């Protein structure tokens, strides 16, 4: 009887010891899941490819992603943050160093941001074939240097309709609407110019507003 009680007591002590151990491991994992990365600064000027004049009111839309490294098919990108600004009367933009934090396990950071620069009536950078220059990687824009971007003026509705596909409706669907509102409004302005119905605004709760 006493021996059975002692065995039971030892088992309880062993279980408690394992619970404490697992608790420590869990805490270490959780504390190591918040990762951060500094992007930028980004600065430059957006010009009309034909006239060389500044393009005022173009949106510069940057997105930042982490990468899950252990996927069998290769790294998988996951949205972390986004920021958008509008060019001034000189066509200039400036985005200070932007710290992005994310709660991720076994993720690293994509080293470059993903960029789109657009104004209704112009080819979207970097996707339009005549938009310049072609940075490496082509989907991004260099940090900590002054970048001059040239957008081609689109002269026919056919050109603008073709360009609309590259502009993209909701950009990437993983970006919250509040992080791409300017870009989205410009996309809808282009749709309305072309006689197309504007896309609805989708909120976090998946309610649709006009």
Helix content: 25-40%
What radius of gyration results from the CA coordinates?
25 Å
Ranges where pLDDT stays below 50 over 5 or more residues in a row are 205-210
Structural class, judged by helices and strands? alpha+beta
Q: Helix count, per DSSP?
A: 3
Strand content: 25-35%
Euclidean distance between termini CA atoms: 76 Å
Give a quick account of the main beta sheet: strands, pairing sense, barrel closure. 4 strands, antiparallel
Shape: elongated
Provide the descriptors you would attach to this structure in a database record.
210 residues, alpha+beta, 3 helices, disordered C terminus, 4-stranded antiparallel β-sheet, single chain
Task: Give a verbal description of the structure.
By secondary structure, the protein is an alpha+beta fold. Helix content is 26%, strand content 30%. It is built from three helices and eleven strands. The longest helix has 30 residues.
Topology at a glance:
Elements (H helix, E strand, L loop, with lengths): L1 H30 L2 E6 L2 E7 L10 E10 L7 E11 L5 E4 L2 E6 L3 E3 L4 E5 L27 E6 L5 H11 L13 H13 L7 E2 L5 E2 L1
Parallel strand pairs: 2-9
Antiparallel strand pairs: 1-6, 2-5, 3-4, 3-7, 3-8, 10-11
Short description:
The protein has helices at 2-31, 157-167, 181-193; strands spanning 34-39, 42-48, 59-68, 76-86, 92-95, 98-103, 107-109, 114-118, 146-151, 201-202, 208-209. It is of the alpha+beta class and 210 residues long. The strands form 4 sheets. Strands 3, 4, 7 and 8 form a 4-stranded antiparallel beta sheet that branches. Strands 5-2-9 form a 3-stranded mixed beta sheet, with no helix packed on it. Strands 1-6 form a two-stranded antiparallel ribbon.
């Amino acid at each position: 009887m006493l021996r059975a009680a002692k065995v039971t007591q030892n088992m309880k002590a062993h279980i408690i010891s394992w619970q404490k151990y697992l608790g420590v491991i869990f805490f270490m994992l959780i504390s190591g899941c918040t990762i951060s990365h500094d992007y930028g600064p980004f600065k430059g000027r957006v010009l009309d490819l034909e006239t060389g004049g500044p393009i005022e009111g173009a949106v510069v839309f940057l997105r930042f992603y982490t990468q899950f490294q252990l996927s069998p098919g290769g790294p998988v990108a996951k949205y972390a943050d986004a920021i958008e600004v509008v060019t001034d009367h000189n066509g200039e933009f400036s985005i200070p160093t932007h710290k992005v934090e994310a709660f991720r396990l076994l993720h690293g950071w994509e080293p470059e941001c993903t960029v789109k620069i657009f104004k209704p009536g112009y080819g979207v950078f970097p996707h339009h074939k005549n938009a310049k220059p072609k940075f490496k990687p082509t989907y991004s824009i260099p940090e900590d240097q002054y970048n001059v971007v040239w957008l081609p003026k689109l002269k026919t509705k056919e050109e603008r309709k073709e360009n609309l596909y590259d502009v993209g409706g909701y950009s990437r669907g993983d970006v919250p609407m509040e992080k791409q509102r300017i870009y989205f409004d410009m996309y809808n302005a282009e749709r309305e110019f072309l006689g197309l119905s504007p896309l609805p605004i989708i909120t976090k709760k998946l309610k649709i507003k006009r």
